[in-house]
Amino acid sequence: MWGTGIQPLMVTVHVTHHLRREGFEGPWQVAPGSLRQVLDALFRSEPRLRSYVVDDQGRIRKHVAVFLDGQALTDREHQQVAVPGGSEVHLLQALSGG
Question: Which residues span the domain enclosing 18?
Fold first, then answer.
């Protein structure tokens, strides 16, 4: 397959307008894998984004929502859900306040 010129399907990662204003242009194309692997690949290309998305323990921050192909993900700590090629991941910062 690799010698045929066919490229494997990648995962597309999108961020909210707020993060784009912070200088993160996106969207990014990364290799499929677990959500943790997808995020690690994203952070290798955008190291500053890590502190916006995960805490110092690697857990997804309380006020960040992650959607995989339109479905909200709830595993903030382990992030073992599979993210197949062709998927779209959206990272959204929840707004709070009144």
Answer: 8-93
pLDDT tens digits, residue range 11-33?
A: 999 999 888 888 888 899 999 99
Residue 91 backbone zone (phi > 0: left; psi -120 to 50: alpha; other: beta): beta
Q: Which residue has the higher pLDDT, 98 or 82?
A: 82
- Specify the CATH number for the domain of residue 84: 3.10.20.30
Contacts of 13 (CB under 8 A, 6+ apart): 26, 27, 28, 29, 30, 38, 42, 88, 89, 90, 91
Kindly report the pTM of this predicted structure. 0.86
Provide the domain count of the chain. 1
Does some domain include residue 42?
yes
